[in-house]
Specification:
It comes from Kribbella rubisoli. This is NADPH:quinone reductase-like Zn-dependent oxidoreductase. GO terms for molecular function: oxidoreductase activity; zinc ion binding. With 332 residues, the protein is α/β, with parallel strands linked by helices. The chain folds into 2 domains: 158 residues, Alpha-Beta Complex (Quinone Oxidoreductase, Chain A, domain 1); 138 residues, NAD(P)-binding Rossmann-like Domain (Rossmann fold). It has 10 helices and 15 strands. The longest helix has 13 residues.
């Protein structure tokens, strides 16, 4: 194990739940890795919708896991890319100086601790800010397609194709040999085409459930279509995987629709399901291989420095983000 003599660090700190104004830059103690952990000097961190949910504490059921009155971990962020600063005595896969990426709670800071099994060596062809936007969103997209049992030559519909998860889902589905249709707003159709989608649907003008096209697999990413609309767009034995949703009330949010889908699936031939992303670090090398062969490319909307994280969060909530946002310049 090797370590610097630094004992404090700059970080984004959150003491209570709320909107972006609850975030501030603070000087806090630098974490130290346990036996199976890695201390990462953070070069960039990714911002995703899940971080917003933890910041606001909504839906309220989320607080059972993250803290009732405020977040147990006062430093937000989970996506990370950086260099190994120190390793615990049980770590065997990484050494000081290695360039890594993965999942590290509290990544909006100069340093963050990650479990060894939640990290992988950074793709050689990506800059740190590009690598930082991959882990959570790409792992979620991969989990959604795996849950949907994707197969080559299937017709796949991606609802929310221009967002963080959607931008990876489109590329992964194409890499698996599917014919992909992406649903997005007018201003983002060019991005969805550039990601490799075979067809696009502008949801401000057309209803995917009214086109007459039927899909073997639908990945609904933070959309809000009714279950009846999803079913109309499916083949008789097709699968719909719901990965999120921003409606449904303050208590459980989009989970209401997901549980209804699971119950309905017991009585129909179509399969309506959802999943809880396990953030499996073991899948990161698979993503690395796809990235290094050019089959997946992160879509980076823009970057923000650490002291502008509140502005980054506000931009995220506008719905104008194309792909992902990265927080950069965390460590000199």
């Amino acid at each position: 194990m090797a370590s610097t003599t630094t004992t404090t660090m700059r970080a984004i700190v959150q003491d209570r739940y709320g909107e972006a104004d609850v975030l501030r830059v603070g000087q806090i103690a630098r974490p130290e890795p346990a036996a199976n952990e890695v201390l990462v000097r953070v070069h960039a961190a990714g911002l995703d919708r899940g971080t917003w949910h933890v910041m606001t504490g909504t839906p309220y059921l989320l607080r059972l896991a993250f803290g009732l009155r405020g977040p147990r971990n006062p430093v937000p962020g989970r996506d990370v890319a950086g260099t190994v600063e120190a390793v615990g005595p049980g770590v065997t896969r990484f050494s000081v100086g290695d360039e890594v990426y993965g999942v590290a709670p509290g990544s909006f800071a100069e340093y963050a601790v990650a479990r060894e099994d939640k990290l992988a060596h950074k793709p050689a062809n990506l800059a740190f800010e590009e690598a930082a936007v991959v882990p959570i969103s790409a792992l979620t997209a991969l989990d959604a397609l795996t849950t949907g049992r994707i197969e080559a030559d299937q017709h796949v519909l991606i609802i929310g194709a221009s967002g963080g998860v959607g931008s990876f889902a489109v590329q992964l589905a194409k890499a698996f040999g599917a014919e992909v249709t992406g649903v997005a707003s007018t201003s983002k159709l060019d991005l969805v085409r550039a990601l490799g989608a075979d067809h696009v649907i502008d949801y401000t003008r057309d209803d995917f459930a009214a086109t007459g096209k039927r899909y073997d697999l639908i990945i609904d990413i933070a959309g809000n279509p009714t279950l009846s609309r999803l079913r109309r767009a499916l083949t008789p034995t097709g699968t719909a995987v719901i990965t999120g949703g921003e409606d449904g009330g303050g208590l459980s949010g989009g989970m209401n629709r997901q549980f209804r889908a699971l119950a309905l699936s017991l009585f129909v031939r179509q399969r309506l399901t959802f999943f809880v992303n396990k953030e499996r670090g073991s899948d990161l090398p698979r993503l690395t291989a796809l990235i290094e062969t050019g089959k997946i490319t992160p879509s980076l909307d823009r970057t923000y420095p650490l002291d502008q994280v509140p502005d980054a969060m506000r931009h995220l909530t506008t719905g104008k983000v194309r792909g992902k946002i990265a927080i950069t310049g965390l460590s000199a």
